[in-house]
Amino acid sequence: MKKYRVTLTEDERSELKAITSKGSHRSQEVLNAFILLSCDEGEYQDSRAINEVVATVLQVSMKKIDRVKKRFVEEGL
Fold it and tell me: What is the Cα–Cα distance from 10 to 16, expressed in whole angstroms?
């Protein structure tokens, strides 16, 4: 399986944080934003969580995390 690295810019991080803090988005969009923020390996991230921890905390499958990361890397936000 190909490994996808998520590196968010400062603008992307602020946009994702806005999605997670406002109640006007679909639940899947909020969940995807939490996944991307947790898996960020960019310079604006203090610490990165491993996929197993993210899957446990957010109660999603590892496959979902991989799909979200793949979609972000290939298509962007």
Answer: 10
